[in-house]
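>> received
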Amino acid sequence: MEGARSIVCLGTKDGAVIWKKDETFDPTGKHKFNDYSASTPAVDEDHVYVAWSTPKVVLQACDHDGNEVWRKELGEFFANHGSAMSPVVSQGKVPHGLTCLEIDSGKVLWEHDPGFTLRCVGKPTICGDYVFASGGNGGGRRESTCINMKDGKPAETFSKSKHVPYVPSGVSRGGHMFLLNDGGQMTCINPEDGEELWYERVTGEAYASPIIIDDKIYCFSREGEMVALAAKDEMVVLGKHDFGDGIFATPAVADGKMYVRTFNRLISIGKK
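>> returned
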């Protein structure tokens, strides 16, 4: 049914459907590669949080049995390509936006205007005292900034327009940032000055963000290839796997298992 959307709870042992909560919203425009399920819910010990992008942005919280606890309308929504915004939970609060806020009070701690003229799609990457953010468009233009937020006084350390991601978000480990761009190339950079320690193709074109587990980085191509890399200042490929189905969504990790959502399947990887 047009406008129908659902939250589905699955069992981690066998993938069985435990409960399903249906919602109906007015349909909104989206890109042909986007989907109404592009947003990833957030979970804490009490609730499941879902951001619905309808003609209005609706933030919804349910308990772990699928019962609605609260719902907030956050204003009108408009975007040419639809939405993929995912809520984030920190200390029992669900913040929105790119400004640095005190999580308990909502007080603005600092703001930085890099003068971006393009869209921001991926989430910022944090590495110690450094925050990296990037923007771009479908035509290949890119822009970015990296700021040092030490002592609450943000100062830009570098900006660059080459080898910068548009859709995927980056990860960090050991004082380095690892940025996978839309073409499947990854760059390892020093956030202090933007020095590229290495830049190599690791997979095909990508929408999913890489994830990091221990000292391993997992990258996923749109065609369904997974590549595992060492999180080091040199490129080391540890292994590859082809799921045989497209992957646009960033996998989730919980309790020693990785959950990969392909176009047609939800796959649990880990020890039984």
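>> The radius of gyration is 19 Å.
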